[in-house]
Amino acid sequence: MQTQMLAHTESVEKEISKLRSEIEELEKSVKIDPDIAKLETQNNKLKYQIAHLQQAIEKEKSKRMIAFPTYFGEKIETIVSKLYPGVNAKIEVGPNKGKNGDYQCSCSFLINKELSKMGQKTNPKEIANNLSQNFENVSCLEKIEVTGPGFLNFYLKPNFVNSQIQDVLVNGVRAPPCKKLQKVFVDFSSPNIAKEMHVGHLRSTIIGDVVCRLLEFVGHDVHRVNHLGDWGTQFGMLIAHLQDQFPNYTTESPPIENLQAFYKESKARFDADPDFKARAYKCVVALQGGDETIMKAWRLICDISLREFNKIYERLDIRLDPMGESFYQKKMEELVPELEAAGYLKHSEGCKLIFVEGEDVPMMVVKSDGGFTYDTSDLAAIKYRMVTSGADWGIYVVDSGQGLHFKLLFSAAKTIGLVKPEQKLSHVGFGVVLGEDRKKFKTRSGDTVKLKDLLDEGLQRAEKKIRDKEEIKKEKGGAGLLSEEEIAACRDAVTYGCIKFADLSCTRTNDYVFSFDKML
């Protein structure tokens, strides 16, 4: 039997040897195409470049600052899913203001509640100990300590903290890594054409810009939307007044310096003169119908306003992309039949409404006279941003007094399918600006404070303080005096910086008292 096995093995070895010889002969006879060889060389070079780029990407990622609450939170979530399957507790890690470490997490209490519901008996301290024991070694951590009834405390290594501080000093502050970069529309400022910006626009403009800067810093694709009030019946009286005051406006640019005064003049005529009022309504109809001559008058009025708005934005170093109500006119005309066909609109006394489940107040999409409303344009805007443009997140920076409107708007948008479950809409509300008498900020005559006048007054006050200090320097020998250019630069930086800081340093949702004396 053994002899037979040896004979079989020898036979197989001979067969393998024969096959090897045949393969070697075939390899000698095959000629490699020079073009293929060239492509293989290029391919190897590309592979090397890809590997090099990947290394550079990883190196760049390693430079990004660590968002410790997120970083530790994700680690804990992984451990919880392994130790306590089925538990869905909210994990929040925050700075520890006490002496027990740098960061703290109290998730063990929430996990304990979840486990109790599932019939498992344990306690928060035992859970916290289990979490800390299963926490993998992390280079930035010195230790994890459990204190009290079940608090997790994270201690960073002093050397690691030092290296982070040095890194910030050398490279500046960098954004932490973001899991998914998003397309975001931020709707803020939104003044009305033919009216001057006033103090009521201040907070939306400043807070909206900061929201954009933070999102842009992280790396999101941010669209800064200025939803201008550039459409409506008021343009009829403005255009009719323009025709009377500057009949050659189609060929000569009208020298309108004060559009606010022009608006007041047209409004006075509209209220007092029935014939003028009738012409104003005809102009509205012609505007909505796209009459080119009327459209030119409308564009002239919008351009004058935008130039004035942009002067304010430039002073505050704020960038916005104008996309007013006029942009959505055709889109509203398309949206209403779609909603009608889908059965979302309910008829009531000639109006077309959307009723949102759980809300007593409906949204009015079409008025009894057939006209559209702010609700209609806002829904059309959401459709354009979330459906047409495919945004992940829509943010509205508008005062808290509009909270109910946005609650209804967002609910209606979800009801009619304009927002998918993975998309998000947010209202960033804020309090109003008060005077030092703690009433709405107004002039002594009771008028709304113009934003331009507010900024100008700030510049005057700041410059006076700077020049007063320059006089003190002169009295002490004149060392370190500023040039006129330096005084102007200092004045601008102090004024606009103080106005922004005063707004952002208080709780966003609270009203705040505007005081130049405290700012400067």
Topology:
Blueprint: H1 2-29, H2 34-63, H3 68-83, E1 93-95, E2 103-105, H4 107-117, H5 124-133, E3 141-147, E4 151-156, H6 158-171, E5 183-187, H7 202-218, E6 221-226, H8 234-245, H9 259-272, H10 274-289, H11 292-315, E7 321-322, H12 329-342, E8 346-348, E9 351-354, E10 363-366, H13 374-388, E11 393-397, H14 403-415, E12 424-428, E13 433-434, H15 451-475, H16 484-504, E14 512-513, H17 516-519
Parallel strand pairs: 5-6, 5-11, 6-7, 11-12, 13-14
Antiparallel strand pairs: 1-2, 2-4, 3-4, 8-9, 9-10
Helix pairs in contact: 4-5, 8-9, 8-10, 8-11, 9-10, 12-13, 13-14, 15-16
Q: What fraction of the residues are assigned to beta strands by DSSP? A: 5-15%
Shape: extended
- The residue-averaged pLDDT reads 87
How many strand segments?
14
Offer a few descriptive terms.
single chain; 520 residues; alpha/beta; five-stranded parallel β-sheet; 17 helices
Question: Can you give me a brief rundown of this structure?
Answer:
Helices cover 55% and strands 11% of the residues.
Structure write-up:
The longest helix has 30 residues, at 34-63. This protein starts with a helix and ends with a helix. The strands form 4 sheets. Strands 7-6-5-11-12 form a 5-stranded parallel β-sheet, with helices on both faces. Strands 1-2-4-3 form a 4-stranded antiparallel β-sheet. It has helices at residues 2-29, 34-63, 68-83, 107-117, 124-133, 158-171, 202-218, 234-245, 259-272, 274-289, 292-315, 329-342, 374-388, 403-415, 451-475, 484-504, 516-519, and strands at 93-95, 103-105, 141-147, 151-156, 183-187, 221-226, 321-322, 346-348, 351-354, 363-366, 393-397, 424-428, 433-434, 512-513. The chain is built from 17 helices and 14 strands. With 520 residues, the chain is of the alpha/beta class.
